[in-house]
Amino acid sequence: KSCLGCWGSAGSAQRGAWQRCRCQCQAQPVPARWQSPSGSPPAFGFLFDVDGVLVRGSQPVPAARRAFQRLTDGGGRLRVPVVFLTNAGNCMRSDKARELSRALGLQVPPEQVILSHSPLQLFSQFHQRCMLVAGQGPVVENAHNLGFKHVVTIEALRKAYPLLDMVDLSRRPKELPPPPPAGFPTIEGVILFGEPVRWETSLQLIADVLLSNGNPGAELQDVPYPHLPILACNMDLLWMAEAKMPRFGHGTFLLCLESIYKKVTGKELRYEALIGKPSPITYRYAQHLIQQQAEKQGWKAPIRHLYAVGDNPMSDVYGANLYNSYLKSAQQNQVQAGQKRSPQAASSCESILVCTGVFRPDGAAPRETGETVFHGHRDFCFEPSLLQPSHIVQDVDEAVQLAFKKENWS
């Protein structure tokens, strides 16, 4: 196997030179540049969703390996830039990269994986604040890797204030607990990484923090508003695993939190940022990584076309189409302003919907009628046209073939 993480490791390698793998994968030398059958580098890249496109739970989708046989050359090396764009967030990039490596039969470096929370490293204005982190998995490690210096978990907050968590009778204190430890920090913001295990505990303690302005042990007469900043990742209402029907996602948890906060306070819960698909921030970050891969090869020609392959009309199709609208609008604004086009700007992001996950075809494309149920987040306007994919195919292998045909690749 060749290591995709070693692309460009030789830095200033000349055209036609070979680069030796410098990691621990023991890969063979890899060519310094990809080339199309015509000899020119690719002007397009892929944004692959994971769950429902490449895997179903822990099981790979059969078409995934066929697709990557097309995407790789005879030595197992990718011929075009690829980013894995998933709304998963309850894991580390390295863990997701290992899962994909096993599923696809090739080495996937963490740098090619974008989790729902990955763009949070751009939010440096919050990195020095004390942030409450909610979710499951390595939330502390993820927060630190993203640049956040001071974090408190839901479990740490529950232990400091055990009287706050009262739903589960078996976890209620049998005796009056001591006061919180001296020096327990004031919470200055909230990061919602993904759906937690104990929803009732997380909903209660997050609400307590917001209602108390970060001091859940204090008695406040007035509800502070605006409340503390909230950074939320992954807005998927539903996602597809091994079960026949979709499962609740983090978007369902956010819906619960929003409803509780408004019922208690009469005010809307506000987010400082919503990260993950379909947010344009996430697609802009993905485009940056795609272009970064090309630049590591020394290509001067930018990546002009992005193909976003997904199974969820609301997150994958809506997000790709929303970003495509953003690209078109930016181009029009530049023309009207008489500005030159940015040499690194993509010109299109086409959405390709597969039928191996959340979306199940009934013989027709998703309807553009008022009967369509909007599964998107409250803060994203329902625009039915954005739910219409550029293309509908059976699986990811057909998606790759379609893109290759459009780009005149074999």
Automatic annotation (TrEMBL):
Species assigned in the record = Zonotrichia albicollis (White-throated sparrow)
Q: Which named protein is this?
A: Haloacid dehalogenase-like hydrolase domain-containing 5
Output the InterPro entries linked to this UniProt entry: CDP-alcohol_PTase-I, HAD-like_sf, HAD-SF_hydro_IIA, HAD-SF_hydro_IIA_CECR5, HAD_sf
Query: Could you tell me which Gene3D superfamilies the record lists for this protein?
Result: HAD superfamily/HAD-like (3.40.50.1000)
Its taxonomic placement starts with: Eukaryota, Metazoa, Chordata, Craniata, Vertebrata
Q: What is one term from the GO cellular component aspect held by the record? A: mitochondrion
**Highest rank taxon of the organism:** Eukaryota
Entry-linked Pfam families: Hydrolase_6
Query: Which key words tag this protein in UniProt?
Result: Signal
